[in-house]
Design brief:
By secondary structure, the protein is an alpha+beta fold. It has 4 domains: 2-93, Rossmann fold (3-Layer(aba) Sandwich), CATH 3.40.50.20; 120-186, Dna Ligase, domain 1 (2-Layer Sandwich), CATH 3.30.1490; 191-323, ATP-grasp fold, B domain (D-amino Acid Aminotransferase, Chain A, domain 1, 2-Layer Sandwich), CATH 3.30.470; 327-413, Glycinamide Ribonucleotide Synthetase, Chain A, domain 4, CATH 3.90.600.10. The chain has 12 helices and 24 strands. Strands 9, 10, 13, 14, 15, 18, 20, 23 and 24 form a 9-stranded antiparallel β-sheet that branches. A 4-stranded parallel β-sheet has the order 2-1-3-4, with helices on both faces. Strands 5-8-6-7 form a 4-stranded antiparallel β-sheet, sandwiched between helices. A hairpin with a 2-residue loop joins strand 14 and strand 15 (278-285). Helix 2 packs parallel to helix 4, helix 5 (94-101) crosses helix 6 and helix 7 packs antiparallel against helix 8 (159-172). The protein starts with a strand and ends in an 8-residue tail after the last strand. The model has no long low-confidence stretch (mean pLDDT 95). Bound molecules: adenosine monophosphate and glycine (GLY). Adenosine monophosphate (AMP) binds at residues 118, 141, 143, 150, 153, 155, 185, 187-188, 192, 214, 224, 271, 273, 282-283.
Length: 421
């Protein structure tokens, strides 16, 4: 099978690595790819959102399967375009992608189908926001409606703080993601967990879970980011958590999708808060998580490419999947200015090979005369497998230190408390 991975992050580097290691994979390509995917196959100089050119190139290169990495490709309708051209795609069409691309669409979908989620008010103007906050008790989670790369959510301690933030957003016309609609949500207490479920349009099944660290700083301080580290499997959740999620979240979600005529194909990422009453959905994403994927895929064996192909063609074959009992920890190395801005880094050491059981994945980057130029922001995810979480964590941080000293820059920072539980 000839497979194209769309995207250029560390998630796509990990997907391309796992796909390339699948028995059924003959060749793997990436569009536009990064320094990591370039080591496995050709990177196409095509934007992840350019459905027309991706489809043309797939036809010319006889691609059997396209795996959509980022939400921007899904929201741009790349899946629709490829399906129209008769190409098998792992990843939903634009309409299914609204579960992620619009927090308001997603919240209404959950409310329509009885999927447990935080109570919320939807507002379209500053006046409406003030009104909604008049009788608000406690913290307010303020969420911009559109895609904002994990930066459109602010957990505020009180209605007064939320008012100040919303006044800034609306007055300056600076709502993350560029829209004008905002969701105000009650704050849920508990522990967060990301569950990945595959859906072939007719059936849905969880295949893995991870815990992600979203805040920039140690101890969950600082701004929200795309994610600074992750570990898999999650620790400290009920043994039957997959069954609970299947029954309370995945089953009504699938029923809702079918009732609304939505043939959802790909992965449904359920961002959950495990509260005293069980799981509540914080967010749905229409793609694999970054960096959760980097921590999940080292534990996944079998023929991953065949599994994704079976999902893409409407006949999910879970016999292609094996999951190791081992633990994996992933730590993100990012430039110190992330998530505010991202200054590029030039001429990094391209040799990121690590000891057995450890592996590093590049984010947005390109090879240049034997070195690597990185876009900045999140630059690498360093992962390690271990027999228990503690062993995986120690190995991951040893690998981080080894790499940090070797890359030829001191601009990279990382959280020191990933998987410290
Ligand atoms: P989201 O982009 O919706 O996943 O939100 C980013 C982060 O904000 C989540 O991972 C949580 O840590 C936090 N968050 C979002 N919604 C809530 C909520 N209702 N209660 C508590 N924390 C939340
Ligand atoms: N790590 C969170 C995300 O991928 O949305």
């Amino acid at each position: 099978m000839r497979v194209l991975v769309v995207g250029n992050g560390a998630r796509e580097d990990a997907l391309s690595w796992r796909i390339a290691a699948s028995p059924s994979c003959e060749a793997v390509f990436a569009a536009p790819g990064n320094a990591g995917t370039a080591s496995r196959g050709e990177n196409w100089d095509v934007a992840a959102t350019d459905g027309k050119r991706i489809a043309e190139r797939c036809e010319a290169e006889r691609i059997d399967l396209v795996v959509l990495g980022p939400e921007t490709a899904i929201a741009a309708g790349v899946g629709d375009r490829l399906r129209d051209a008769g190409i098998a795609v792992f990843g939903p069409n634009r309409s299914g992608g609204r579960l992620e691309s619009s927090k308001i669409f997603s919240k209404r979908f959950m409310e329509r189908h009885g999927i447990p989620t935080a109570r919320a008010a939807i507002v379209h103007s500053l006046e409406a926001a003030h009104k909604a906050l008049d009788d608000w008790q406690g913290s307010v989670v303020v969420k911009a409606d559109g895609l904002a790369a994990g930066k459109g959510v602010v957990v505020t301690p009180s209605a007064a703080t939320a008012r100040t933030l919303l006044t800034e957003w609306y007055r300056a016309g600076r709502i993350p993601g560029g829209g004008s609609d905002v969701l105000l949500e009650e704050r849920l207490d508990g522990r967060e967990l990301s569950i990945f479920a595959l859906c072939d349009g007719r059936a849905i099944a969880p295949i893995g879970a991870a815990c992600d660290y979203k805040r920039a700083g140690d101890g969950d301080t600082g701004p929200n980011t795309g994610g600074m580290g992750a570990y898999s499997p999650p620790s400290g959740f009920p043994d039957d958590c997959f069954d609970t999620v299947r029954e309370r979240i995945l089953a009504p979600t699938l029923r809702g999708l079918l009732a609304e005529g939505e043939e959802y194909v790909g992965v449904l990422y359920c961002g959950l808060m495990w509260t005293g009453e069980g799981p509540q959905v914080i967010e749905f994403n229409a793609r694999f998580g970054d960096p959760e994927t980097q921590a999940l895929l080292p534990r996944i064996g079998g023929d991953f490419a065949a599994l994704l192909h079976s999902v893409a063609t409407g006949a999910m074959d879970l016999s292609q999947l094996t999951t190791s009992e081992r633990h994996c920890v992933g730590v993100v190395l990012a430039t110190g200015d992330y998530p505010k801005s991202s200054a590029p880094l030039k001429s990094l050491n391209a040799d990121i090979a690590l000891d057995d059981g450890c592996r590093a994945f590049w984010s947005s980057s390109r090879r240049n005369n034997g070195t690597v130029d990185a876009a900045g922001g999140r630059v690498l995810t360093v992962t390690a497998l271990g027999d228990d979480l503690h062993a995986a964590r120690s190995k991951a941080y040893a690998a981080v230190k080894q790499l940090a000293g070797r890359l030829g820059t001191d601009a990279l920072t990382y959280r020191t408390d990933i998987a410290l539980i």
